[in-house]
Sequence to fold (617 residues):
Amino acid sequence: MREYIVRRLLYTLMTLFAVATILFFLFRMLPGDPTAQVISPALDEVAQARLKQAFGLDQPLHIQYLLYLKNLFALDWGRSFTSSRKVFDIIQYRFWNTIFLMGAGMCLTLMVGIGMGMVMAWRRNGPLDLWPTLGSLIFQSAPPFITGLLLLMILSYRLDLFPTGGMRTPGVQLTQGMGLFLSWDFIHHLILPTLTVSLYYLATPMLIMRDSMLEVMGSDFIELARAKGLKPHVVMIRHAARNALLSVVTVSSILVGFAIGGQVIVEQVFSWPGMGSLMVEAASSHDYPVAQGTFLVLAIVVIFLNLLSDISYCYLDPRIKLGDR
Amino acid sequence: MLPRGLKEFLATQARIISRHKFGLFGATVILAFGIIGLIGPLVAPHGPWESLRDANGKLAILRPPSSEFLLGTTSMGRDILSQMLYATRTTVIIGLVSGLISILIGANIGLISGYYGGRLDEVLMRFTDIIYGMPFLPFLIVLIALFGRSLWFVIIAICCIVWRTSARVVRAQTLAIKQRQFVLAAKARGCSNLRIIYRHIMPNILPLLLLYTAFNIAWSVLAEASASFLGFGDPDNLSWGGMLYSLWISGKIRTAWWWFAWPSICIILLVSALVFVSRAYEEVANPRLQQR
Fold:
């Protein structure tokens, strides 16, 4: 198992490296002056020349590439064109906002999905099975901006139950550190975006849980547990669900793929100050250093989550052939 | 007249889909959208960008659905019915082109990787891993921001990413089929590798390929709608996502429910139709599910 994990880690590093390389070439393949992507054309010529030298843009491409990698590791990701603040600082400020929203969405999805999946398998082919299936498939087919806008239109504009966006009410006293994430005002703002992403992700874990529950319920050890005279809900939760959970973990990497895209959209709809909305802002105002940095961080999040689901899978199911995927 | 092979193929597909209640519904919806995409712009009562006036000569701004404007008008007095008809064509083009190209790439990478194995497999699968490391929507946004908002860049960006899932799944299936007797027999008879791959293995994973074609089209439609909603669509080719983007930036979302409803309903309808069809194929591709 250790060999497997080491190998996975190695692949992860390779992937990271490859993504950084693709990004380098992507941002330099542009039509026109490639330096315009790193240095703001609005600066005067002296400043431009100085920056050119700092980024090595007067050098041949392979030297530029090495410099790019060096700057990447040194966390010197350039300055924003629009605010001329350091890219890394901007991203750092936004990073936790995204992670928090994503984490809340994932937790809610997994809790509801696993719970509902169990109930659906229990009430197989009944209304409690069919309606959630149909509903979750429809919400998965709806891109999150539709769900988000619908929730906004009904719950915020019509019924005025929730704020229409942002992370806190303007003018509310800022609490420092973790206190911010625990204040009622923050949670009030968090509910709608979390609900939106959860509805979008829900179908995958829920339907997988249902199917794998049905499969597990046919096994001998469930029969045995029943024969022992255990109560049905004990059999369901303690015996069947624990084994069925495994396949939910397996597909969690699919969930990760969904998660980032959903995140970008939801942040935009609810003006959540995270990396997704930062990326959209940067890309539409042609603020290339920020766009590049945000993309890289989002890619790192995806790659890291994929690694996590791979490792947890291998940890949970010793039956998989180690070393082989 | 259709050639006999194709006719048989279509008959089989019709049987698979119609066995499944949801599948039949899905196929009907997809077909309907296809037809609208084909003829839509020809029957549209107005141009998509035309600002309309009502009988009194006033600009028809934000009119709810009525007999004059069947689906209502936008804040610029544009006819939503006409916009929908044009937008359907854009979506159909993007869905079909990028769905088909991405299944072509994914299926070939999966087949070759699974069949040859060894170093080639290693290289191709590591490459697939790298693509899995790319966040899809951000990649789409960056590519369009860098190269310009055009339909073709949207399609290229989608194709670059969407093939990855089909490649992995096809590879896994190829690995299983490669061990079967008939493949060994073909090898013993001296069939070439390419012939084995495309004549012996591929027909056996056809349901899987069709399942993922449907998925890939669905993903493409979703991706295009999302990118357009974020303002990264082709400004010359209106799409459903693009209509919702105009609504969002006009700030009229509090009142203009009709402007929100029609494009949203169409996106959900088309994507869920594709999902339903893919579920019909899932039962054929994965016979274990049939007993459930």
